[in-house]
Amino acid sequence: MLHRLPLAPRVEVEFVLDGKPCVAQRGDTVLTAILTQAEQLRVSEAGGAPRAGFCLMGACQDCWVTTEDGQRLRACTTLIDGGMRLVSGARR
Q1: Integer distance in angstroms from the first to the last C-alpha of the chain?
Q2: Does residue 53 contact residue 61 with C-beta atoms inside 8 Å?
Q3: Backbone phi, then psi, for 32, in 5-degree steps?
Q4: Any idea of the CA torsion for 3, 92, 61, 87, to the nearest 10 degrees?
Q5: Residues 39-90: pLDDT tens digits?
Q6: CA of 87: how far to CAs of 4, 11, 34, 41, in Å?
Q7: CA quadruple 56, 60, 65, 71: dihedral positive or negative?
């Protein structure tokens, strides 16, 4: 799991991950928001291995997550927004 460096605090943003309420900081990417709450971003469609992103710049297709309404988004290039309801598919 990622741990935040002790920098100046930012405004908190509430979101839901796999049905559980979570808190991130404004300006975090979805990837950062999830990985500060969980040990993995998602599981691979091919084999179910845990994934946590790879290139971190939107080129590799490894960080796709889904919203509860079925929209897919790249976790590494999408900023977290208050009220987001995300589904990782990760086993917890």
Answers
A1: 13
A2: no
A3: -65, -45
A4: -100
A5: 777 766 677 666 666 666 666 777 788 999 999 999 989 999 999 999 986 5
A6: 22, 23, 10, 10
A7: positive
Instruction: State the chain's maximal CA–CA distance in angstroms.
Output: 40
Residue corresponding to tokens 């997550």: 65
Residue with tokens 């999408």: 78
Provide the sign of the torsion angle of the four alpha carbons 68, 71, 74, 80, taken in this order: negative
- Token pair, residue 14, equals 């509430």
pLDDT tens track for 1-44? 666 766 777 899 999 999 999 999 999 999 999 988 877 777 66
pTM: 0.78
User: Following DSSP, what letter does each residue of 5-65 receive, concatenated?
Assistant: -S-----EEEEEETTEEEEEETT-BHHHHHHTTSS-SEE-TTT--EE--SSSSSSSS--EE
